[in-house]
Amino acid sequence: MSKSTNADQENTAEKSNPKTGAQAVVASLEEAGVRVIFGVQGGAIMPVYDALYDSKLEHITMGHEQGAAHAADAYGIVSGQPGVCIATSGPGATNLITGLADANMDSVPVLALTGQVPTNFVGNDAFQECDTIGVSNPVTKANFFATESETVGDLVSLAFLLAREGRQGPTLVDLPKDVTLGEVSDWKYKPPKLPDHVEIPDGADVKVVESAATALIDAKKPVILAGGGVIKGNACEQLYKFATEFEIPVVTTMPGIGSFPEDHELSLKPAGMHGTGYANMALTHCDVMLAVGTRFDDRLTGGVDTFAPTAEIIHIDIDPAEISKNIHADYELVGDAATVLSQLHKVMQAKPNAEEWLEQIKTWKQEYSIEYGERESNGKPRPQYIIEQLCEATESNTIVTTGVGQHQMWAMLYWTYKEPRTWVSSHGLGTMGYGLPAAIGARFAASDDQKVVCIDGDGSFLMTLQELSVAVREELDITVVVLNNAGIGMVRQWQDAFYGHRRMASEYPWVPDFSKIADAFGAKGFLLENVEDVESIIREAIEYKGPSVIDARIDPAENVFPMVPSGGANGLFALTEEHLEEL
Amino acid sequence: MGEKSKGLKGPSPSDRPHPNERRNPQGIRIDPGSSGELENRLATFSALVKHEPGVLAKVSGLFSRRQFNIESLTVGPTEDENSARITLVVDENDTGIIQVKKQLAKLLPVISVKELSEDAVERELCLVKITNHFDQGNSLEQLKELVEKEGVDILDISDGTVTIEVRGSKRDIDDMIEMFDEFEIKEVARTGTVALERGSKKTT
C-alpha cells in the first residue's frame, strides 16, 4: 500500500500532537517549511520513516546515501534553505559523509538526520553501529546526539536553524532508535532560537568601513573579488549597484559564479587555477581588492607569496575566522555581505580614478580572450563548443550542475552565467560524481520554468549514475551531457604536464555507451559524435520532457587552458602546453 | 598519445609584466628580500564550554585537524555545573594564535574564549617518582634537603621509590624536573597548565 496523498483527507484530519520522538522529528521539519527530503531507508531510521508515512513531506528515495547528501546540498544552493537528507545508522551515515564534507567546504545549508542503534547498545559495536558524531565532527558545522524523545523535535529545529543562519553549513542529528520510538507526552513546535552565546554579525565596524572606502576611492587599480558568500548572503543586488556605480571590475571565485552577470563589461569571470587570463591579471596587478564572502582557497590564490602582491585587501566575511586566515586583510569587515556592502556604498563619496586601469583590463580581455577557435578536434566536437551551444539553447535562468574535472572547468569558462543560484558545483572538496544527484536536488528546488542541465564527465558520471533511476522514477526533467573523453581527463592533463606523460590509471581502455545506459534506465539516450549534430541533439534533449543523457564523444587529448600550475603565480598562467613547459 | 591540443592565444608568461612584491606564508605583504617569517610564542587560552559529552573531542579534533601546536590542554568543572573550563597553551605565531581563538569560538559548545594576559595566574601540578637508591649513601637526606628548600611535598616512600608533588608554572616544573635528574626519575605525570586572570579582570 502506498501512502495516502488525498488532499481532502489531509486538510480535514485534525493535526494531532506528536506521540513519538519520530513524529516530533517529522513535525519539526514540516513546521520549518521543509517540502522534500532525500534519503534511503534502513533499520535504525525506520521509526522516522514510519512517521513520514502520515506526513505531507515528499520523500525521494535515492540510489545511495551519498546521492541523498548531494541532492540536499544542491537543494540548499538553489533554494537558500537547508536541504534535508536522511539515512540509517552505520553505512547509511558513513555514506552521507562525503556529501556533508562537500557541503561543509562550500558552506551549503544541509540538515542530515541519521538513525542510530538504541542507546543501550551504543558503544557495544552493535549491528550497523558507527560513531556518527565522531565521524561527522570535522565535516559539520554542528552535530547533536539525541538523548530524549521529549526534546528531539527541538534539537532537529535547532539543527535546521544552525544550518541556515550565519555562515551556512551542514548540521547533523543522530537519532537512536529508542529516542525516535519513545513516547512524547506534551511536545509542541516552538520556533528555534540560537543559543545565547551565538552571535551572528550584521553590520561591520563603522570606522573600518570608512577607512576601507577611502582606500577604494584612492585606488588606481581597484578590483572586486566576489565569492560564494555574496550569493549565500543574498547580496548580488548590492554588489551590482556597487560595482556599476563605482565602475570597479568584478572577478568571481568559483562558488561566486552568478553573483555578477558575466555578460556585463565589468565582469572578468572567475580567477584561479583555470580562471580567465584577464581575471588572473587583474588580481595580480590590482592595488586595492574588495573581497566579499571568500575564504581565499588555494585554487584561487595559487601561491600565497605571489597572490595580489601589490594589493591592499578589504575583506568582508560573516565568519571572522576566514578573515586573515589565508591572506592577510588590511581592512577587516566582519558582517553580512549585503549589509556591509550597503554600509560601504553609503560612505563612498566618489568613484576611484581608474580610467587607465579600466583601459588596461579591456586590453587584457582581448589579449587573453578564451576564444577557442575550431569547433572540432581530431574529428570530434570540442567541449567548449558543446557548452556554448548548450548555453545558447537555454534561458539564462537555467541551472547548471557539474561533476569535477576538465568538464567542470569548461562548464565554468564557456557558459555565460547571468543569475545567482544557477551554478551548482563541488568546489572545495572537488567531489567527482556530484553532478547527477545535484541535478536531482536542484530540480526539486527550481521553478517550473527553469531547466536543469548536468554537465558531467565520463569519470564523474560513472561514480553516481545509479541516481538516473531516481530521475526516471520521479519523472524529472533534467538533461545530462556527458563530455566523454574516455578517462579521468584532468589527471591525464596533469600527468602529461608534470609526470612526464606517464598516464597511470587515467585512461579507460573501454567506456560504456552512456546513451544505451540511459535507454536501459528508461531515460532518453543520445549519442553525439559529429560536430554537425551538436545543435540538433542539444535541442532535442533539452526539449525532451524527462531525463535525457547525451553521450558526447570528445577528443581525449583536449586540455583545459588557461592553467596555473599548483602553487604557481596567478599571473603566470599557461595558455598552451608550450607555456607549461616554459614555467 | 593523441594529437596535441592547441590551447589559447595570448602572450607567453615571460612576455607579461610581473610585480616583484611578495607575501609571507601568512599572506602578509613583506618587503622584497625579507623572509617575513613570524616568530612563535606561547599563548594561554581559557575557554568556557558547555559541560556535555563530546566537547573535548571537538576541541582536540580541531587542534589536530588545523595542525595547531598544542603544549597542554586541561579540562575541569567550574563554579557553574553547566559549564566546564578548558585551559590551552599553544605555541604559534601571531596569525596562528588569532586563528586558534577564532576557530575555538566557532565551535557551538564553546561559550567564550580568551587569550589570557601575560600576568595571569598560571599553575601546573606534577608528580615525579624517583628510584630510592638511598641505602647506598645518605642521599635521602640530600633529597629531603632539596624538597624542603624547594617547597615540594613527598607523597609516598615505598617499594624503593619516592613520589614527589611539584607545583608551579610550566617553567618552574621544567626546572624542577631537571633538578631531580640527579636522582633516577622513573615516571612523571603532569596536569597541564590551569590559569585565571588576576584581580577584577574576568577570565572568560
Mind explaining what this structure looks like?
The complex is a heterodimer of chains A (583) and B (204). Chain A has 583 residues and is α/β, with parallel strands linked by helices. Chain A folds into 3 domains: 7-181, Thiamin diphosphate (ThDP)-binding fold, Pyr/PP domains (Rossmann fold), CATH 3.40.50.970; 206-367, TPP-binding domain (Rossmann fold, 3-Layer(aba) Sandwich), CATH 3.40.50.1220; 376-561, Thiamin diphosphate (ThDP)-binding fold, Pyr/PP domains (Rossmann fold, 3-Layer(aba) Sandwich), CATH 3.40.50.970. In chain A, 38% of the residues lie in helices and 16% in strands. Chain A is built from 24 helices and 20 strands. In chain A, strands 2-1-3-4-6-5 form a 6-stranded parallel sheet, with helices on both faces. In chain A, strand 3, helix 5 (91-105) and strand 4 form a beta-alpha-beta unit. The longest helix of chain A has 16 residues, at 149-164. Mean pLDDT of chain A is 96; it is low at 4-13. By secondary structure, chain B is an alpha+beta fold. Chain B has 2 domains: 41-115, Alpha-Beta Plaits, CATH 3.30.70.260; 121-196, Alpha-Beta Plaits (2-Layer Sandwich), CATH 3.30.70.1150. Chain B is 23% helix and 35% strand. In chain B, the strands form 3 sheets. In chain B, strands 7, 8, 9, 10 and 11 form a 5-stranded antiparallel sheet that branches. In chain B, a hairpin with a 5-residue loop joins strand 1 and strand 2. Chain B is elongated, with a radius of gyration of 26 Å. The model of chain B has no long low-confidence stretch (mean pLDDT 91). The interface between A and B is large, with 60 and 44 residues.
